[in-house]
Amino acid sequence: MGRAAHLEDMRGLLIVNPRSGKGAPSEAELEHEAARRGLDVHVLSPGDDAQAVAREARGPIGVAGGDGSLGPVAEVARERDLPFVCIPFGTRNHFARDIGLDRNNPVAALAAFDSGRHMRIDVGRIGRRAFLNNVSFGLYARLVHRREAHRRRRDAFARLRALWLSARDRRPEPFFLDGEPVAARIVLVANNAYDVHVFDVGARDRLDEGRLHAYIAKGWLPRTWDERVAERFTIERAGSLRAAVDGEPVELDSLVELSIEPRALRILVP
Predict the structure, then answer these.
(1) Which of 10, 168, 177, 217 could cross-link 186 (Cys pair, CB 3.0–4.6 Å)?
(2) Angle, alpha carbons 120-135-122 (nearest 5°)
């Protein structure tokens, strides 16, 4: 059961990804504080399906993890119109930042379960998969895939090694964006507008604009970006597409459609 408790009478369910958290609080401390507040807690074990766990919830569904942990559970909350709670418990927590949480205090974020304060935000979609932040193609996606490959080999310097290997290849990649050929180092499709940088993204001012923003960087070290705004994009290239969906590596078909669902997710905040 992965330490799932009695879901039929719960005030809220917190799903914890123990692989995300580093530093304080520990997984055990977070679990203890959530239980003290009357929440049921499920700590994911290897092989657990987070979406299957979320579908057993009867009330608000929370996730303690990094950005990549949020989308699958948020999709279940969206389907059932249940409130969603984000507990920042990863290494970057961009989504938590954008909804105004203190990324260094996951325990404080637990107060969202009792706050009654909610907002409606947009949900991005790539094919049938939901995303809350962005989907990237090109250099950053290759970096993420290489980082994960090195991690599977237990490379202690996985991120730096992946960055070095990706930076050696200075050639842009050939894409088709809405049928138009584009040679780009990075294509980033975002759920609402970002302040974009070379290897990172800044904050979003809002999450309910109802628009996707496509950022295209063509140079080796991009300092400027071409930006396009729409409710729907298609991305295509010869062969399969490697992408990073909310920072998680995925392999996609050669043609994918990205769209946005305005104000589709109800979230609780402290």
Answers:
(1) 217
(2) 10
